[in-house]
C-alpha cells in the first residue's frame, strides 16, 4: 500500500495555526518564565497571536478551496467571515480577561483555605487563562470551517474543554464558579456524546464522513432514511446545546452566572458565532436537500426558544442570568436564519452574529464594573439609580440593551430586520410572527432595566462603579462604537458580507 | 453474524449510559455513564465501518478515544476540585446557582 503525503495549504490554515502556536508558547511561558514576567508576556503573546491571525486571514480573504487540509477544512467566504468575527470578538474579550481582578489567585486551592489566603497575599495570578483562551479560540476557528465529521467533533471538543475549566476560575463566590464548571462540563460532555452518536449514524447512512459526501447521499437518496433522521436529530442535539437553544438551554443561566464575567462575555459571544457557523454549514451544505425531514422540528425549536428566552428573562433578578436568558432568545432568532436556508438567510445570520457578539462582550464588560466591597453586584435592584451616579456607564449599558432589543439606530435592529425578512422570504410566516412577538416581550425587560437605572432613586448600599482599567475601557468603547456605527451606517459591512458569504461544497 | 445486532447492542449501551446520567447523583458515576455513551457511539462507528466496507468509521473511533482521554483529564480535574471544596461529589449538593 502506497503512503501519500498529505498536502496542506498553509496560507489558508495559517489563522488557526498561528493561534495554536501562540497557545503552545503560552504553555511554555507558564512552565519556564519567572512569575513576575508571566502576565505581561502572556498578554503580549496572546494579543500578538490574535492580531497576526487576523492579518493572515485578511491575506487569504478572497480565496476558497475544499482542499485546504485534504478535504477536512473547507475554506470559503462564509468561513472567512465567521473566523474574522470570532477573532475580533476574541481580541475584545482578551482585554476584559486581562483585568485579572476577576480571577482567582490559585485555581487549585480550596476556597477559604490558608493556601488560598497565602496565594492572595502573594498576589498570584492565573496567567494560564491566556493559553486556555487561545486553545478555545483555535477550536472555534476550526469549528465553522470543518468539512468532515472527525474535524467537526475534534473542533467541538477543542473549544469546549478549555471553556469548562475557564468557567471555574472566578475570584469571588468560588463555590458557585466551580459548580458552574461542573454543570457545564457534565452537560457539555453529555451533549457531545449525542453529537458523536449523530456522527456515527450519518456515517452509517452515507458511508462517507465528509459533508459533501453526505450531501451526495441525501441528493441520491440511496441510504437508509432512518439513519439519516437519527443522525440529523442527534447531531442537532449537540449543536443546539452549544448555542443554548430550548430544550438544551438548562446549563446557560447557571454557567453565565457562575463563571467569571469576562469569561462569560467571551463564551457567550464567541461560542455562539462558532456554533452557529457550524450549524449553518452543516444544514446548508449537507442537509439542505432533506429539508422536509428536519425543518418542521427546527421551526418548533426556534419558536419555543425565542418565546421561552424572552418570557423567562422578565422574571430574572440577576443581571447575568437576565443576559443568559436574553442570549437564549437570540439563539432562537438566529435559528430563523438557519431555517431560511437561503443566501439572504446566511448573510443576515453572519451580520446578526457579529453585531450580537460585539454588543455582548461590551455588555458583560460593563457588568464587571458595578461592584461593592465583596465583588460584582449582580442583583438588578441594586443597579437602580446608576444613571444618576455614573451617567456615561449607564448610557453605554442602555445602548447595548437597546441593541439586544433591536431598536433602530443600533446594530441589533439591522440584524433582526434582515434575519426576519430572510425567514419571511423563505415562507416561514410562523417564525416571523413568533419572532416579532418575542422581540416585543424582550424589549419590555430590556427597557425595564433602563428605567431602573435612570428613573429610580439610587440605593445607598455600597454599590459603586469602579474606574475601569485602560484595557476594559478600550473593549467597552470599541463595542459601543461598533454597535452604533453598524446601526447608523451598516451598508459597507452588509455589502461586504453579500459579496463574500458563500459556502463551498 | 448479522452486524446489525451490534447496532442494537450499541443503542442499548447508549441508552443505559443516558439513563445513568439522568438518574445517578454521584458526579464520578455520571461521568462514567457519559464515557459509556461515547463507547457506545464508538461501537456504532466500527459496526458501520464493517457494514459500509470503509475504514473511516474506525479512524473516527480512534479520534474519539483520544478526545475521551482529554475529557477525562479535564473532567476529573473539575470533579476533584469540587470534592475538595465541598467534601462531596454529589451533583445534588451543587445547587447554589438554582433559584
Count of discrete alpha- or pi-helical segments spanning 4 or more residues of chain B: 3
Question: Any idea what the shape of chain B is?
Answer: elongated
**Helix/strand/pairing class of chain A, anyone?**
mainly alpha
Oligomer class: heterodimer
**What is the arithmetic mean of pLDDT of chain A?**
90
Mean pLDDT of chain B: 90
Strand content of chain B: under 5%
Order of adjacent strands in the largest pleated sheet of chain A: 2-1-3
Which consecutive residue ranges of chain B, at least 5 long each, have pLDDT under 50?
Answer: none
Biggest pleated sheet of chain A: 3 strands, antiparallel
The tally of structural domains of chain A comes to 1
Give the biggest sheet of chain B.
none
| Strand portion of chain A | under 5%
Largest interface: A-B, 45 and 49 residues
Description of the structure:
The complex is a heterodimer of chains A (505) and B (99). With 505 residues, chain A is mainly α. Chain A has one domain. Helices cover 72% and strands 1% of the residues of chain A. Chain A contains 20 helices and three strands. Chain A has a three-stranded antiparallel β-sheet, with no helix packed on it. In chain A, β1 (370-372) and β2 form a beta hairpin. In chain A, α11 (261-286) runs antiparallel to α14. The longest helix of chain A is centred in the middle third of the chain and has 33 residues, at 174-206. The radius of gyration of chain A is 22 Å and the shape is globular. Chain A starts with 9 loop residues before the first helix and ends in a 5-residue tail after the last helix. The model of chain A has no long low-confidence stretch (mean pLDDT 90). With 99 residues, chain B is an all-alpha fold. In chain B, 78% of the residues lie in helices and 0% in strands. Chain B contains three helices and no strands. Chain B has helices at residues 4-23, 27-52, 56-86. The chains are: A mainly alpha (505), B mainly alpha (99). Chains A and B meet through α6, α7 and α10 of A and α1, α2 and α3 of B.
Amino acid at each position: 500500500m502506497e503512503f501519500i503525503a498529505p498536502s496542506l495549504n498553509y496560507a489558508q490554515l495559517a489563522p488557526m495555526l498561528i493561534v495554536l502556536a501562540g497557545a503552545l508558547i503560552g504553555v511554555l511561558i507558564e512552565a519556564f518564565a519567572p512569575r513576575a514576567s508571566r502576565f505581561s508576556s502572556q498578554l503580549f503573546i496572546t494579543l500578538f497571536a490574535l492580531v497576526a491571525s487576523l492579518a493572515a486571514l485578511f491575506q487569504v480573504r478572497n480565496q476558497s478551496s475544499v482542499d485546504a487540509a485534504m478535504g477536512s477544512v473547507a475554506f470559503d467566504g462564509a468561513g472567512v467571515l465567521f473566523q474574522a468575527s470570532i477573532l475580533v470578538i476574541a481580541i475584545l474579550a482578551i482585554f476584559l480577561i486581562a483585568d485579572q481582578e476577576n480571577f482567582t489567585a490559585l485555581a487549585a486551592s480550596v476556597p477559604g483555605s490558608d493556601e488560598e489566603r497565602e496565594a492572595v497575599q502573594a498576589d498570584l495570578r492565573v496567567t494560564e487563562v491566556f493559553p486556555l483562551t487561545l486553545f478555545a479560540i483555535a477550536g472555534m476557528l476550526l469549528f465553522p470551517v470543518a468539512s468532515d465529521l472527525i474535524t467537526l467533533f475534534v473542533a467541538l471538543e477543542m473549544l469546549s474543554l478549555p471553556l469548562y475549566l475557564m468557567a471555574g476560575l472566578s475570584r469571588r463566590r468560588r463555590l458557585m464558579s466551580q459548580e458552574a464548571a461542573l454543570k457545564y462540563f457534565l452537560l457539555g460532555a453529555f451533549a457531545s456524546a449525542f453529537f458523536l452518536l449523530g456522527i456515527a449514524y450519518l456515517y452509517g447512512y452515507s458511508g462517507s464522513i465528509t459533508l459533501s459526501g453526505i450531501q451526495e447521499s441525501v441528493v441520491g437518496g440511496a441510504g437508509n432514511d432512518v439513519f439519516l433522521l437519527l443522525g440529523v436529530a442527534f447531531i442537532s442535539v449537540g449543536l443546539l446545546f452549544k448555542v443554548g437553544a430550548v430544550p438544551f438551554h438548562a446549563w446557560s443561566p447557571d454557567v453565565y452566572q457562575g463563571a467569571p464575567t469576562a469569561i462569560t462575555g467571551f463564551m457567550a459571544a464567541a461560542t455562539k458565532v462558532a456554533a452557529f457557523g457550524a450549524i449553518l454549514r452543516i444544514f446548508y451544505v449537507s442537509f439542505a436537500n432533506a429539508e422536509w425531514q428536519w425543518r418542521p422540528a427546527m421551526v418548533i425549536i426556534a419558536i419555543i426558544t425565542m418565546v421561552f428566552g424572552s418570557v423567562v428573562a422578565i422574571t430574572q433578578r440577576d443581571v447575568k442570568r437576565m443576559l443568559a436568558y436574553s442570549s437564549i432568545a437570540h439563539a432562537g432568532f438566529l435559528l430563523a436564519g438557519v431555517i431560511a436556508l437561503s443566501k439572504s438567510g446566511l448573510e443576515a445570520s453572519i451580520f446578526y452574529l457579529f453585531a450580537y457578539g460585539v454588543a455582548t462582550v461590551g455588555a458583560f464588560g460593563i457588568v464587571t464594573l458595578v461592584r461593592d466591597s465583596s465583588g460584582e453586584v449582580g442583583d438588578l435592584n441594586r443597579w437602580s439609580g446608576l444613571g444618576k451616579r455614573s451617567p456615561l456607564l449607564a448610557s453605554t449599558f442602555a445602548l447595548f440593551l437597546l441593541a439586544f432589543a433591536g431598536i433602530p439606530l443600533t446594530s441589533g435592529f439591522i440584524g433582526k430586520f434582515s434575519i426576519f425578512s430572510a425567514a419571511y422570504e423563505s415562507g416561514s410566516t410562523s417564525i416571523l410572527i413568533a419572532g416579532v412577538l418575542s422581540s416585543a416581550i424582550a424589549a419590555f425587560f430590556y427597557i425595564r432595566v433602563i428605567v431602573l437605572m435612570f428613573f429610580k432613586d439610587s440605593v445607598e448600599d455600597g454599590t459603586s462603579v469602579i474606574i475601569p482599567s485602560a484595557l476594559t475601557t478600550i473593549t467597552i468603547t470599541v463595542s459601543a462604537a461598533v454597535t452604533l456605527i453598524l446601526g447608523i451606517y451598516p451598508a459597507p459591512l452588509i455589502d461586504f458580507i453579500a459579496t463574500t458569504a458563500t459556502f463551498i461544497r | 453474524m448479522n452486524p446489525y445486532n451490534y447496532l442494537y447492542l450499541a443503542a442499548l449501551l447508549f441508552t443505559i449510559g443516558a439513563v445513568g446520567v439522568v438518574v445517578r447523583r454521584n458526579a464520578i458515576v455520571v461521568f462514567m455513564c457519559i464515557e459509556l455513551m461515547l463507547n457506545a457511539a464508538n461501537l456504532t462507528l466500527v459496526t458501520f465501518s464493517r457494514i459500509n466496507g470503509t475504514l473511516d468509521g474506525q479512524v473516527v473511533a480512534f479520534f474519539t478515544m483520544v478526545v475521551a482521554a482529554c475529557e477525562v483529564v479535564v473532567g476529573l480535574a473539575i470533579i476533584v476540585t469540587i470534592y475538595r471544596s465541598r467534601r462531596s461529589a454529589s451533583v445534588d449538593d451543587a445547587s447554589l446557582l438554582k433559584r
